[in-house]
Amino acid sequence: MLSLRHPVARRVAAVTTGLAMAAGFLLVSSPADASAARHHHRSLAAVLTSDGNKFDHNSHDFDIVTQAVLAVLKAKPSSPVSVLTHGKTRVTAFVPTDQAFRALVFDLTGKWLKKESNVFAVVASLGIDTVETVLLYHVIAGKTITAAKALKADGAELTTAQGGTLTVDVLNPRSGRIRLQDQDPDDVDPTTIPRLLNINKGNKQIAHGINYVLRPVNL
C-alpha cells in the first residue's frame, strides 16, 4: 500500500477526495428523501448513493468519489468518513467532479483515461488509507457552511476532518466562485462550481462541487 509520502500516492490521493456527494443534486428526490430533507437530517451519503452508484459518460457528476467513499466505508466501517452517513451531524464537503479526477490521473500518469472505471482503478490502487486521508481533507466537520456564508468569509481558514487547513478566497461574489487554497502552493487551487453550490440545502449536511481535487500536502 502506498503512503502519502510517496509522490505518486500523494497526487492521486488528492484526486480521490471528496466528493461525489453532489451526485444527488442532479436527481429528483423520492418522497422519502423529501421527508428527510424537511427534517434537516438527510445525509450526504444518501445524496451520494441516490443515483445508483454507476459509472457513466457524464464528467460533471461525482461517480468516482462516490465509489471512493463506499470503498473506504466497506473496508473501514468505523472510519471518520462515516460522518457522511450521520444526517444529524453538521458537515460541509467540497466535492470534485469526475473530470477533476481524470485531470489528476493524467497529471500522474500522462494518460487521459476516458472510462471513469479506469480512472477509479488508478485511485483505488493507492490503498484505502490514502484514499481515506484525502477524502477527509475535503470535509469540514461540525459546520453547515452555505454558499452565502462562504461568500462572506473571504480569508477565513477552515480546519478539515483530516487535520489540515484550507483558506477561503472569494473570487466573484455575484457568480459564487470561491477559490480554496490547499497545502500545495505550486498547483492550481480548485474553485467552486456556481451551478453545484448548496447541494442538499436545507439539511445539516451540505456540499459544494469543485473543479479540481484538493491536495493535503505540498507535491
Question: Could you give a quick summary of the protein structure above?
Answer:
By secondary structure, this protein is of the alpha+beta class.
Name given to the CATH architecture: Roll
Name of the top-level CATH class: Mainly Beta
Helix-strand topology string: HHHHEHHHEHEEEE
Q: Write down the CATH topology.
A: FAS1 domain
Report how far the terminal alpha carbons are from each other.
Answer: 19 Å
Number of helices: 8
Low-confidence stretches: 1-37
How many structural units, i.e. domains? 1
Strand content: 5-15%
Structural class: alpha+beta
Characterise this structure.
- This protein has a single domain (7-210), classed as FAS1 domain, CATH 2.30.180.10.
- The protein has a three-stranded mixed sheet. A three-stranded antiparallel sheet has the order 3-4-5, with no helix packed on it.
- It contains eight helices and six strands.
- It has 219 residues and is an alpha+beta fold.
- Mean pLDDT is 84; it is low at 1-37.
- The longest helix is centred in the first third of the chain and has 13 residues, at 63-75.
- It has helices spanning 7-16, 31-38, 44-48, 63-75, 98-109, 116-124, 128-137, 147-150; strands at 91-96, 139-141, 157-159, 165-172, 177-181, 205-210.
- The two termini are 19 Å apart.
Essential attributes:
8 helices; three-stranded antiparallel β-sheet; three-stranded mixed β-sheet; 219 residues
Layout of helices and strands:
Layout lengths: L6 H10 L14 H8 L5 H5 L14 H13 L15 E6 L1 H12 L6 H9 L3 H10 L1 E3 L5 H4 L6 E3 L5 E8 L4 E5 L23 E6 L9
Helix pairs in contact: 1-5, 1-6, 1-7, 4-6, 4-7, 5-6
